[in-house]
Amino acid sequence: MLALRAPCSRRPLNLLQLRKVHASVADSAPAVVPAQSSSSDATLPEKKAPKWTANSIRTGLIARKRGMTAIWNDQGVRVPVTILQLENCQVTANIKSVKRDKSMYHAVQVAASDRSPKSTTRQMLGHFRKAKVPPKRIVKEFPVTADAHVPVGTTLSAIHFVPGQFVDVVANSIGKGFQGGMKRWGFHGLAASHGVSISHRSSGSTGQHQDPGRVFPGKKMAGHMGNKRITTQNLPVVRVDTSLNLIFVKGTVPGVDDAHVLVSDAKKKMIALSNHNQAKGLYEKVLPKGVDDLPFPAGTAELAASLPAVIEAPSYRRSPFLPLE
User: Fold this and answer.
1) Which of the pair, 193 or 238, is modelled with greater confidence?
2) Which InterPro entries does its entry note (predicted)?
3) Beta partners for 192?
């Protein structure tokens, strides 16, 4: 595969230039001469590579939240972004099972973050040995369609997500322990002047009269706050760094720094919209401008080696008057 990465330059490449790169790679690729085969194999049709469609659901990735920073677009507008990094994210299994309604369930099992074999159970060591990958810290599975299975042992890259598209991020929120009603639910508290004695941050009355004589379930009261599974939806991908496996998403992501997060295609803005009757085939309503399809079935490390180091969405292209990183 033709490598187009410059050895010293790290100037971001926008999506319109990325299409020209794909075209140049296709034009400069050498012609493949088929090997001599027997007469029985000559009649077999050539197997085409799978292509993303509006009904395809791809696998997600396991990344680590590295923190927040800010970038400036070509209009000088400051954009807060969260940096997500992939740590040797690899495919460990493809799952096919029959659900209760007799339909097929398809999923791709992904693992990330290498760990020492000494701290891994024997059962998981055997599972990773079968997949021919090193032991991992976290293993998750992502439901996919039947055409989106990824070969076991494939190393996934940040180019799996195209700058300009939307993603959903799932993680555990920051745990804050036992908190009162004002911090947990935003209550304004009781009066801070006359008539209140040492109850300024109290939640006040929580029950009713003798009938029903109890507190209804779900009442907003003091209790444990945080450390819940949170899904932040429709975050736009601003930049992708293929050399460092970094994904820059606009906005905040739940969880503490260095926590593992699950990143997948946005369920509402991409999957649900593409499955709508009026949006089938109209990829310009689902994908970012200048992109015809997505890396399918997944963005691999081999694909990242043929692309520039940094790719940005056109609307977040860096101003020429700002210094490069």
Assistant:
1) 238
2) Ribosomal_uL3, Ribosomal_uL3_bac/org-type, Ribosomal_uL3_CS, Transl_B-barrel_sf
3) none
DSSP secondary structure, 228-272, as one string: -EEEEEEEEEEEEETTTTEEEEES--SS-TT-EEEEEE-IIIIII
C-alpha pair distances (Å), 193 with each of 188, 253, 321: 14, 39, 55
Q: How far is CA 303 from the centre of its chain?
A: 18
AA identity, residue 213: G
ω before 212 within 30° of 0 (cis)?
yes
Say which CATH topology domain 15-22+50-87+158-176+225-316 has.
Answer: Elongation Factor Tu (Ef-tu); domain 3 (2.40.30)
Q: Is it the case that residue 2 has pLDDT exceeding 60?
A: no
Highest-pLDDT range among 11-25, 41-55, 56-70, 299-313: 56-70
CB 253 within 8 A of CB 171: yes
For residue 33, name the pLDDT band (cuts at 50, 70, 90). very low
Reported as a single tens digit per residue, the pLDDT across 54-92 is 788 999 999 999 999 999 887 888 999 999 999 999 999
Return the pLDDT at 153: 93
Let me know: does 258 contact 112? Beta carbons within 8 Å. no
Residues with Cβ < 8 Å from 323, sequence gap 6 or more? none
pLDDT of 316 over the 70 cut: no
Nearest to 127 by CA among 139, 144, 115: 139
**What are the residues facing 13 on neighbouring strands?**
311
Phi-psi region of 301 (alpha: psi -120 to 50; beta: other; left: phi over 0): alpha
CA quadruple 289, 292, 296, 300: dihedral sign: negative
Q: How far is CA 151 from the centre of its chain?
A: 19
CA dist 67 and 103 (Å) reads: 41
Residue 110's SS3 state is strand
Predicted pLDDT of residue 277: 58
d(CA 324, CA 260): 29
